[in-house]
Write a structure and sequence with these properties.
- The protein has 17 helices and 34 strands.
- The protein is of the alpha+beta class.
- A hairpin with a 6-residue loop joins strand 33 and strand 34.
- It starts with 37 loop residues before the first helix and ends with a helix.
- About 8% of the residues have low confidence.
Length: 750
């Protein structure tokens, strides 16, 4: 809501209408315009039944809306009526109203949701600001031969006494221009407030400009014939493009800008490179809410195998403006590959509209209801095919595709069409709508648990210094001696694990990863006597909502893992104490570690992005002036990982790809200290030590010292070869070291 004074629902009835805009219908909606159902023809509004209010002036005797009317003079049948559904816009008393009417449809058009919604913008001079939104969730609709009257109680984003909304739309024939909607806001029982006359502007409820770039060698998706492979009998075969898929949900995607082909790197794209690429290459981008979106068709994602796409713009105050799909994993000319490409594009763009994964909707703000099996039973673009688990019968990818109608669910379409403006428009509310408050009961222990799985959450230290990065270890193990199979995605960045944090103030928030990735690949692991557990380590000190541990005191953490069968496995509570700083030096170190840019760099494991330069400077000061302090190991880790790796930057004109080559010398300088201190038990956790050691070995090999690379890996094996670690952990480390040695020899041995 804006800071503008007044209330757009209480003004006078004076208005000034805006010019009529595009009145054309999508080609696929042109046929069968007569869509009003017979039951609407005799339906009385709830207001009329309750109050006896007469029909509005000009209303004719009700007659079946679908029947052709005869011309009294010639006897010729009149053209059918147009639907009244669509988007309207009008002005009154210094406010603009964008109205969405969703009470009828046409064959082949979007499903009717029976809603009316709108957004208000305050206008003054040459400026405009968002004021608020409203929704009539269950209106009553009265049809006559000349008009449609829609009435209902609205919910608003602000408090107003004018809760009754009445929308009157004249019925037009297909050979006529659509009529303007008159919107009246009333204070119960019947006190008229503001009136808006809103000319029709589009059959779509919302319109988004979509800019797409691709790297050299990547062929952007064009279309898929849904009849190419088996599909549900009630889903008609049709040619689907990405814009057509959204058109079926009532949303218009307008291809905008130039589809640039930009230089590529064979080494894949990291989180930090994607983040930097959008900042310099999205020509429509600006730091403001706007219906504009950028998608990059990149080659591959380096951070993890199986990532088909990512909505990476979740790091600042203007999120959800950019996403990427990874061509190397989804490419192919066959129908299965084309089908998967379509789903990946629609899925990632769905995240930009603030749609969560099917199993995460209860973690939104406010929470939305989950479908069956904790959301895994949803037949939606936002589910993973391999995660599909219907309430009855077999699940998995084959079952998903056999039943999927290539549509969003009803509540997802409700969000896309009628969600409050800031919850949907790109650049406004953060992913998940931002506030991050959650109910602690969401992570309560289940009343019964026959999953055969147990989740652990621990930290190397129970007490942390103020400003110290918070890293936790997750452990998933089987409690069933027969063994259990489930997915391998244990890191919270994959969004199949959630971590709730109760802060010292009593507020409970959800850790939201800075960059959320879609690991749309079936990675099943069997946990049994030979391999009873899997582990993951995660830095959770900083995420989409900023720093989560900003005050001294006691924190309570709890994790929840969503298993392949829909079971929700909850960890015991982990308590962490963040100590008060005791000196000015402690405060200065905390300041150097807890800036917004430093948090992003630690979460991204380093970055060359110019926008994060001050954060890099602060971490460098920690290394140079406080090199022996425990905080320095985290600064060295971020710097060392970044040095060891190349960094790709796109030029603003998108014609050149600048690659800063790896700097193995600087990487070794930083990572060697991280490994040394950590092996002494004074640095990072063992899982992070494993990562740092393997990257240090790679830096040595890249520099031509394969002998020292192998020695580094041998020291890693010896570190784990103690009674403190279980045999299956030692075996896993040995296997990982052997495969790393083989890769380094193959790549650098010559």
């Amino acid at each position: 809501m804006s800071t503008a004074s007044g209330d757009p629902t209480t003004g006078t009835a004076d208005f000034s209408a805006t010019p009529l805009a595009d009145t054309s219908f999508p080609e696929e909606w042109e046929s069968g315009q007569e869509s009003a159902r017979d039951e609407y023809a005799t339906e009385e509004s709830a207001t009329e039944r309750a109050t006896g209010e007469a029909a509005p002036r000009g209303a004719e005797q009700r007659r079946p809306a679908g029947g052709p009317a005869a011309n009294a003079e010639s006897g010729a049948a009149l053209p059918a009526h147009r639907p009244v559904r669509g988007r309207y816009r009008g002005n009154s008393g210094g406010y603009e109203l964008i109205l969405r009417v969703d009470v009828d449809s046409v064959p082949g058009g979007p499903k009717v949701l029976r809603k009316v919604s709108g957004d208000f913008f305050s206008t003054g001079g040459g400026t405009q600001a968002y004021f608020g939104s409203f929704l009539v969730d269950a209106p009553t609709v009265s049809w006559t031969g000349t008009q449609v009257v829609i009435r209902g109680i609205a919910s608003y984003t602000w408090q107003t006494a004018y809760t009754l909304v009445r929308v009157t739309v004249p019925r037009s024939r297909t050979n006529q221009r659509p009529g303007a909607a008159t919107v009246e806001f009333l204070r119960p029982p019947n006190q008229l407030g503001a009136t808006y006359v809103c000319p029709y502007i589009s059959p779509y409820f919302r319109t988004v400009e979509w800019e797409q770039d691709s790297v050299t060698g990547a062929v952007p998706f064009l279309s898929y014939d849904t009849g190419s492979l088996p599909q549900p009998a009630n889903s008609p075969a049709r040619i689907l493009t990405v814009p057509r898929a959204y058109a079926e949900a009532g949303i218009e995607l307008l291809v905008s800008g130039t589809a640039n082909v930009i230089a590529n790197s064979q080494n894949g794209w990291t989180n930090t490179e994607l983040h930097a690429a959008m900042e310099t290459n999205f020509s429509l981008w600006r730091n403001a809410p706007q219906w504009k979106l950028w998608l990059l068709v990149a080659s591959s994602y380096e951070g993890m195998a199986g990532v088909r796409g990512i909505m990476f713009d979740a790091a600042d105050s203007f999120q959800r403006q950019g996403c990427a799909v990874f061509y190397d994993l989804i490419q192919g000319a066959g129908p299965e590959e084309q089908r998967a490409m379509l789903r990946t594009y629609v899925h990632e763009i769905g995240h930009a509209f603030n749609l969560l994964h099917s199993w995460q909707k209860n973690l939104a703000t406010p929470p939305a209801p989950l479908g069956g099996n904790n959301g895994f039973a949803d037949l939606s673009w936002m589910n993973y095919p391999q995660n599909y688990k219907p309430l009855n019968g077999n699940g998995g990818a084959a079952a998903y595709w056999g039943a999927f109608p290539f549509q969003f669910t009803d509540n997802e379409q409700m969000h896309l069409r009628h969600g409050f403006y800031r919850n949907v428009v790109m650049g406004a509310n953060a992913f998940g709508t931002g506030a991050a408050d959650i109910e602690p009961a969401l992570f309560d222990e289940p009343l019964t648990d026959e999953s055969g799985l147990r989740l652990g959450l621990r930290a190397d230290k129970s007490g942390l210094a103020f400003g110290e990065p918070v890293v936790v270890e997750l452990k998933l193990e089987t409690t069933d001696l027969r063994g259990r199979a489930t997915h391998h995605h244990l890191h919270p960045d994959d969004e199949l694990v959630s971590i709730a944090i109760r802060q010292p103030s009593g507020r409970t928030v959800l850790y939201r990863p800075l960059l959320r990735r879609c690991v749309d690949q079936d990675q099943t692991v069997r946990l049994d006597a030979g391999r009873p557990a899997i582990y993951s380590s995660a830095y959770i000190g900083y995420g989409r909502d900023g720093h989560y541990f900003q005050q001294p005191g006691t924190y309570q953490l709890r994790a929840a893992y969503l298993a392949s069968d829909g079971s929700r496995i909850v960890s015991p509570v982990l308590r962490l104490d963040v100590r008060h700083p005791v000196s000015q030096a402690d405060l200065r170190l905390a300041e150097l570690m807890m800036g917004e840019e430093q948090g992003k760099i630690l979460a991204l494991r380093g970055s060359d992005s110019p926008s994060l330069q001050s954060g890099n400077d602060a971490l460098q000061e920690v290394i140079e002036r406080h090199g022996t302090h425990p905080f320095a190991v985290y600064a060295r880790l971020a710097k060392g990982l970044n040095f060891e790796h190349e960094f790709k930057s796109l030029s603003p004109d998108k014609t050149e790809l600048t690659v800063r080559p790896p700097d193995p010398k600087s990487g070794i300088e930083q990572l060697a200290q991280v490994v040394k201190v950590s092996q002494q038990g004074k640095g990072v956790d063992n899982l992070t030590l494993n990562l740092a050691s393997r990257r240090l070995a790679r830096a040595y090999a890249r520099q031509g010292d394969l002998e020292e690379a192998n020695s580094t890996l041998d020291r890693l094996v010896r570190h784990f070869d103690t009674p403190a670690f279980k045999p299956f952990v030692k075996d896993a480390v040995r296997d990982q070291v052997d495969s790393t040695k083989a890769r380094l020899t193959e790549e650098f041995g010559g």
